Structure to design on (194 residues):
């Protein structure tokens, strides 16, 4: 990996609701804790409208590009779960700036196929087997074909939603390895300096 001048920003997408952590999380999220946590998170997620996503993305990108230690050049956005949808929205709204978008176990097609038409970034979507049917994958991939972008979009066999999250029962070691095997080469292709 040769990404000099590359910085990583991990925003608190719930910043409007207070400082992190906005809700308390157990050290390990087992299946028994998931429904209660989802009930707490859903109102926060629903309040984070598409307009807020784009406003925040503009602010983050403006901030990063103004930092003298951040190299000029392409940007990559990644997201997990709902963050995957936010990453896609960001990439679609900033086609000249975002060179790569990766999303894992996220509802990346939730805005419909037309929302993917603005993508110019190279794309990788790693879907949980429990999140997407093969038919829905085909529809999503047809939208990516129509956008004319380079992409991989695949269902990770045997996985459930959250398969990359090491603090949950959903963790799938093979799925996590596959995630890194897809993400790092994408970043190398799009961010590497000569």
């Amino acid at each position: 990996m040769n990404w000099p001048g590359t910085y990583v920003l991990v925003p608190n997408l719930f910043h409007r609701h207070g400082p992190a952590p906005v809700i308390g999380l157990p050290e390990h999220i087992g299946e028994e804790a998931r429904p209660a946590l989802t009930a707490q998170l859903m109102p926060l997620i629903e309040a984070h409208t598409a307009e807020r996503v784009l406003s925040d993305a503009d602010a983050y990108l403006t901030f990063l590009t103004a930092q003298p230690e951040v190299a000029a050049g392409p940007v990559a956005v990644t997201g997990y779960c709902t963050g995957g949808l936010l990453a896609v929205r960001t990439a679609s709204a900033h086609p000249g700036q975002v060179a790569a978008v990766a999303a894992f176990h996220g509802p990346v097609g939730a805005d419909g196929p037309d929302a993917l038409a603005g993508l110019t970034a190279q794309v990788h979507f790693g879907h949980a087997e429990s999140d997407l049917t093969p038919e829905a994958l085909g529809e999503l991939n047809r939208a990516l074909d129509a956008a004319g972008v380079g992409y991989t979009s695949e269902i990770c066999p045997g996985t459930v939603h959250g398969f990359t999250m090491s603090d949950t029962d959903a963790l799938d070691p093979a799925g996590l390895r596959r995630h890194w095997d897809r993400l790092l080469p994408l970043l190398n292709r799009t961010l590497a300096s000569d």
Observations:
- The longest strand covers residues 98-104.
- The mean pLDDT is 93.
